[in-house]
Amino acid sequence: MTPRQTAALKKVDADSAARDGVNDVIDIGMLDDWIGFHLRMAQIASFQSFARHAQGIELSPGRFAALVLIDRNPGISQTALSRAIGSDKSTLTPVLDSLVKRGLVSRERTHNDRRLYELKLTDAGKNVMRAMHEHAQQHEKNLDTIVGPKDRALFLKILRKIAATRE
């Protein structure tokens, strides 16, 4: 076992023991060298941090991303939003339903094509965006501290390169 794998196991062991009181050591094997595994672990850590910063607003990173995109693109269709977020329409529909139900987004049929909906932020949605901006900025600062200013541009370049392969 490499020193890196040993360190990873100690981290997994310490985290799981702290959470559930079990002292099982988990051998993550080949996963330690898999980019996808570490992307997923990083995503989970990032989402948990985001949730801590957004406490009281109850907005997930995905819902926040939807609000940002709707704010920046008033009248965007569900199809275009789905492509921008990288999820299919069946996954996005419940997200939008919850944002509409909370009064943060309006969803109206377009005049040109009655099959399409235009999405816009409501005044309440704009207020949540303003409130979330500070929380999201603090979350990003924390991630910047972890990645480091020297590696930030390269890290984003690599993430964008991976995301660009999305079908």
From TrEMBL:
The keyword tRNA processing does not apply. Keywords: DNA-binding, Transcription, Transcription regulation. Pfam families: MarR. The keyword Transcription applies. One of its GO terms (molecular function) is DNA-binding transcription factor activity. PANTHER family: TRANSCRIPTIONAL REGULATOR, MARR, TRANSCRIPTIONAL REPRESSOR OF EMRAB OPERON. This is Uncharacterized protein. It comes from Pseudorhodoplanes sinuspersici.
